[in-house]
C-alpha cells in the first residue's frame, strides 16, 4: 500500500511538472498509463478451486523443513491466499504431520500430495542458501526451483510437472551487501525470505509492473 501511494504521489508531481513545462498533450497520456500500471499475468493459473499442497525444501535439510523453508512456506502461503480467491491451501501442519506419521526419510512430492489428498503440489527447492557475504555484511543468495504437479483426476494423475521454473539465481539486496551493524541475522533473514516469497508467489498471482519496479528500487537502496 505504501509503495502504491508513493508511486501515485511521484507520478502526480512529475505529471504537473511535465504539463507546466512541455504541455500536456502526449506526456499526460504516457504518464497516466504508468500511473494505472501494467498487470503482468501469472505464469501458472491452475490453482482456482483446487486443493493445493505447498512444500518448500532446502538442500541444507533434505528430509524435512528448517527455519528458512518454514518462513518461506508461510510467506508464499500468505500471498496465495490473499490474491487467489478460490484456493484451498493445505496447512503446513497437515503436510508435516503426514510426513512424520509415515516416517518419511526422503522427499517424494507425488506421494506427499496423494497422502494429503492434494489436487496440485507446488514444490519449491532451495540450494546454496546463504545470508552473509564476509563476516560483517549481509547479502542473501540462493538458487531456487519451482515444480508444479497436477494430481487431480482430470489430469489422470500425471507424474511429470505441468509447470517448472529454474533453477533461478536469486540475491537480496540485488546490487550490494548491507552492513550487519545494528541488524540481527534473524531480521535480515525475514527481509530476504519476504522478497524471495514475493517473487515465487508472483508466478501464481501475477503482479503490477510499477509495483515490482518500485520493490527493485527499494532493494537497491538497502
Describe the protein's architecture and organization.
The protein has helices at 2-22, 27-36, 67-83, 92-101, 109-115, 185-205, 209-220; strands at residues 39-40, 50-58, 87-89, 120-132, 137-150, 163-172, 178-179, 207-208. 25% of the residues are buried. The protein has seven helices and eight strands, in the order H-H-E-E-H-E-H-H-E-E-E-E-H-E-H. It is 44% helix and 25% strand. Strands 2, 3, 4, 5, 6 and 7 form a six-stranded mixed β-sheet that branches. The chain folds into two domains: 1-36, no CATH class; 45-220, Rossmann fold. The protein is α/β, with parallel strands linked by helices and 222 residues long. Strand 2 (50-58), helix 3 and strand 3 (87-89) form a beta-alpha-beta unit.
What is the end-to-end distance? 20 Å
* Whole-number mean pLDDT: 82
What fraction of the residues are assigned to beta strands by DSSP? Answer: 15-25%
Global shape: globular
Look at the structure and give the CATH class of the largest domain. Alpha Beta
What can be said about this structure in brief?
The protein has helices spanning 2-22, 27-36, 67-83, 92-101, 109-115, 185-205, 209-220; strands at 39-40, 50-58, 87-89, 120-132, 137-150, 163-172, 178-179, 207-208. It is an alpha/beta fold and 222 residues long.
Explain the layout of strands and helices.
Elements: H1 2-22, H2 27-36, E1 39-40, E2 50-58, H3 67-83, E3 87-89, H4 92-101, H5 109-115, E4 120-132, E5 137-150, E6 163-172, E7 178-179, H6 185-205, E8 207-208, H7 209-220
Parallel strand pairs: 2-3, 2-4
Antiparallel strand pairs: 1-8, 4-5, 5-6, 5-7
Helix pairs in contact: 1-2, 3-6
Amino acid at each position: 500500500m505504501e509503495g502504491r501511494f508513493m508511486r501515485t504521489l511521484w507520478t502526480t508531481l512529475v505529471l504537473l511538472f511535465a504539463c507546466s513545462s512541455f504541455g500536456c498533450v502526449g506526456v499526460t497520456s504516457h504518464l497516466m498509463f504508468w500511473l494505472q500500471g501494467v498487470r503482468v499475468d501469472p505464469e501458472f493459473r491452475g490453482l482456482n478451486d483446487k486443493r493445493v499442497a505447498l512444500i518448500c525444501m532446502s538442500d541444507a535439510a533434505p528430509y524435512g523443513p528448517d527455519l528458512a523453508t518454514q518462513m518461506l512456506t508461510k510467506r508464499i502461503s500468505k500471498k496465495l491466499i490473499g490474491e487467489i480467491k478460490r484456493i484451498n491451501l493445505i496447512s503446513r501442519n497437515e503436510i508435516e504431520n503426514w510426513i512424520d506419521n509415515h516416517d518419511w526419510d526422503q522427499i517424494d512430492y507425488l506421494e506427499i500430495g496423494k497422502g494429503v489428498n492434494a489436487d496440485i503440489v507446488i514444490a519449491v527447492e532451495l540450494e546454496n542458501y546463504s545470508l552473509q557475504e564476509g563476516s560483517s555484511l549481509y547479502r542473501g543468495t540462493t538458487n531456487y526451483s519451482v515444480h508444479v504437479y497436477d494430481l487431480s483426476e482430470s489430469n489422470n494423475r500425471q507424474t511429470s510437472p505441468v509447470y517448472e521454473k529454474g533453477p533461478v539465481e536469486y540475491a537480496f539486496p540485488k546490487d550490494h551487501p548491507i552492513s550487519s551493524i545494528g541488524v540481527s541475522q534473524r531480521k535480515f533473514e525475514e527481509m530476504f525470505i519476504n522478497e524471495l516469497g514475493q517473487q515465487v508467489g508472483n508466478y501464481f498471482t501475477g503482479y503490477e509492473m510499477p509495483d515490482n519496479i518500485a520493490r527493485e528500487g527499494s532493494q537497491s537502496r538497502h
